[in-house]
Amino acid sequence: MAQSIPSRQRPSLGQMRSSSFLQDHQQYKPPIPINQTIGEVLGAQMEETLKIANPISPDPERVTDSGIIHSIFHPQANSLPTGTPRIVATIYYKSANPVHPHFHPDASPNPTSGERLPSPQVPEGSAPTADMDKFPREPPAPEPEPLDHLYGPYVSQLCLTNFLQILEALPTPYQRTTTSHRCLDRTEQPRVVEVTFSPPPDPKYLSFKDLRKHESIWRFEREWNVEVVLQKESVFRRHKRLAIFDMDSTLIKNEVIDEIAKFVGVEKEVSEITERAMNGELDFSASLKERVALLKGVPADVFEKLKSVITIAPGARELCRALKALGYKMAVLSGGFQPLADWLAEQLGLDYAVANHLEVDTATQTLTGKLVDSYPIIDAVQKCSLLKSIAEQNKIPLSQTIAVGDGANDLLMLDAAGLGVAWRAKSKVQLEAPTRINGESLVDILYLLGLEKEDIEELIEMNN
Fold this sequence. Notes:
CATH superfamily of the largest domain: HAD superfamily/HAD-like
Strand order of the largest sheet: 7-6-5-10-11-12
CATH architecture of the largest domain: 3-Layer(aba) Sandwich
Number of helices: 18
Cofactor: Mg(2+)
GO molecular function: L-phosphoserine phosphatase activity; magnesium ion binding
Number of domains: 2
Strand content: 5-15%
Radius of gyration: 32 Å
Enzyme class: hydrolase
Low-confidence stretches: 101-109
Distance between the termini: 105 Å
Largest sheet: 6 strands, parallel
Helix content: 25-40%
Keywords: Amino-acid biosynthesis, Hydrolase, Magnesium, Metal-binding, Serine biosynthesis
Pathway: Amino-acid biosynthesis; L-serine biosynthesis; L-serine from 3-phospho-D-glycerate: step 3/3
């Protein structure tokens, strides 16, 4: 009986060919591209050598990945030496003022007939005056394209990447820069991000003072609708001990002298002088005497009536509560008047309150329109002197002090403090102050100390 021969599957032509006719018949094939470095090749071989099979499968309920990666290779062959200076940049997204992508109605996708074009405006903080009539008749420089409406109304990843690219381009000559960042308020879509980079630019080519006002950073702020505060990293950046505040338009939303002027119907005259004085256009002491003279005849009990009118600024109570929990000494130094400064110090738990004293006619119980001569006028020089004397009295170095104000009479104080913040300040002050913030709440100042949102909430609750 004949045995059956098992059939063998013969190779077919289709199995011998690849999916490409050109590859099958190409005589001179290009060399395989080398996309690995020698370090990656040796590293892969070493990892294969070090692999040891584990016969026991891990229990998923008990064994978890720590997230720590160990390697025998140094992650950074050229790490920066210990003690290299660092700079901290705190980036705030200006959520109260989102930039709309269309500047004019006729540039919008659905313009309506008869809609008027908005009048041209000068961006706040970009020039000493916001009055277009005082500017030279030249076409304004083109504004950078707003990007926050494209990538999100927060500090987006692309915004952060752009900032890091700007930092890489700043040092002269070129230096390798290391950076890290933290989201201070929330992980997803953060409004406040802290970026630490090192080393800073060589001061021979770019000083820290010039870096704070560098045109590349200014343009970045305009493009992404953010504000950048730069500080030198040190233990004293995070651990301050004395906070000095201006009163009018800082801790409170009002200008007290303008409120008093309403009682005698000279509010317009007084407010015009106040605005020019706060923007540095007038000598403060002379302008104060001029305004006080207009208050002659106002009842002396006007300050009691004003207490119901005064509005404490958003976040002022929370900020002072948090600083008090950290053991800060706090003071209000005001170009306003002593009765309201004392009242505000009581409301916010401040340790010091210094302001101007108005002379009162005891016979008529009205203001005489003069200041009390025995008390010095609280002008720019006096504020700076008081900052230093209060710090010295409490044995606190100036590097551990904070000063916050909005007017030109605050500039000397802001420059002298370890951290000087122009808060929602006048245009000239924003240009000249060491740092500026235009947020919605004074609580934002706490982020400059490296505190996170959870830390701030815990501090506020302590004294609630």
